[in-house]
Specification:
MetI-like fold; 76% helix; mainly alpha
Length: 265
C-alpha cells in the first residue's frame, strides 16, 4: 500500500492513457480483421487482406484523397493567416486588441452545428448555394481552423524571450535576418503544432463538412454513409496509417528537440 500511495499519480496517469488509447487499439486490431459479415463489427479472424488491398472500394480511396487534399490546403491557408494574426496580436498594440482576443475564442467555443449552419447561410446568401463542393469545404475548414492556429502560435510567441531578438539586433543583424535566424526558429515548433492540429481537425471534420459539401464526399462522410450497410475493414487501415504517421511526427520532433538540447549543453 505504501508503494501505491507514493506512485498514485503515476498509476492514475497510466490508467487514463490506457483508457484513452483503447479505441485506437480496437481500430488497429480491426484493420487485421477477416469478418464473417460486414453488418456485425467484431473480430472473427486474422488476415492481411485489408492491408494488401486498401483500395478494394475505389470510393473510399477517392474520399481519402479528397480529405487529404482539403486538409493540406486548409492547413496551409489557416497556418499562414493564423501565424500572421498571432504576430499582430502579440507584437503590435492597436485599438480593439483586447476585444479581438475574445472574438478569437468564439469559433472554438461555438458548437460545430452552429458554425456549419452559419457558413451554409453565408454561402447561400452569397449565391453559392448551387455550387457547394470542394471550394466551400476548403473555405469552411480554413475558417474553423484559424482560431486554433492563432491560439497555438500566440501562446508560443507570448512565452518567447524578446532579449534574444534584441541581442541579434545589437550584433547588427537586420530585421529580416533577426526574424529568419532567431524569431522564426523559436516560433516554428508552435507553428508546426498548429499545422498538425489544423490538418487533424480538417481531415476528421464531419458536421461542418456535411452542411457545406453539396454532392462532394470526404472520408468522414464516406464512413458515415457506409456505416448504414456495413463498414469495410479498410477504413481501419486508413485510421491506423493516420495514427502511425502522427506518432512518427511527434516522436521525431521530440527526438530532434532532445538532440538539439544535447548539442547546446
Amino acid at each position: 500500500m505504501t508503494w501505491v500511495r507514493k506512485n498514485l499519480i503515476l498509476i492514475l496517469g497510466i490508467l487514463v492513457l490506457v483508457y484513452t488509447f483503447i479505441p485506437i487499439f480496437v481500430v488497429i486490431l480491426m484493420s487485421f480483421n477477416d469478418p464473417n459479415s460486414r453488418l456485425i463489427y467484431q473480430f472473427d479472424g486474422f488476415t492481411l487482406h485489408n492491408w494488401l488491398n486498401p483500395c478494394e472500394d475505389p470510393d473510399m480511396c477517392s474520399a481519402v484523397r479528397l480529405s487529404i487534399g482539403i486538409g493540406l490546403l486548409a492547413t496551409l491557408g489557416a497556418t499562414v493567416l493564423g501565424t500572421l494574426a498571432a504576430f499582430a496580436l502579440v507584437r503590435h498594440d492597436f485599438r480593439g486588441r483586447s476585444s479581438m482576443n475574445v472574438v478569437i475564442f468564439l469559433p472554438m467555443a461555438a458548437p460545430e452545428i452552429v458554425m456549419g449552419a452559419s457558413l451554409l447561410a453565408l454561402f447561400v446568401g452569397a449565391g453559392f448555394g448551387g455550387q457547394l463542393g470542394f471550394g466551400t469545404i476548403l473555405i469552411a475548414h480554413i475558417m474553423f481552423c484559424l482560431s486554433f492556429v492563432i491560439v497555438t502560435v500566440r501562446s508560443r510567441l507570448a512565452g518567447m524571450d524578446d532579449n534574444l531578438e534584441q541581442a541579434a539586433m545589437d550584433l547588427y543583424a537586420t530585421p529580416q535576418q533577426t526574424f529568419w535566424r532567431v524569431t522564426f526558429p523559436l516560433v516554428f515548433p508552435g507553428i508546426l503544432g498548429a499545422a498538425l492540429l489544423s490538418f487533424s481537425l480538417s481531415f476528421d471534420d464531419f458536421i461542418v463538412t456535411n452542411l457545406n459539401a453539396g454532392q462532394t464526399t470526404t472520408f468522414p462522410m464516406y464512413v458515415w454513409g457506409v456505416a448504414q450497410r456495413g463498414v469495410p475493414m479498410q477504413v481501419n487501415v486508413v485510421g491506423t496509417v493516420m495514427f502511425v504517421i502522427a506518432v512518427v511526427i511527434v516522436v521525431g520532433g521530440e527526438l530532434n528537440s532532445r538532440r538539439r538540447a544535447r548539442a547546446l549543453a
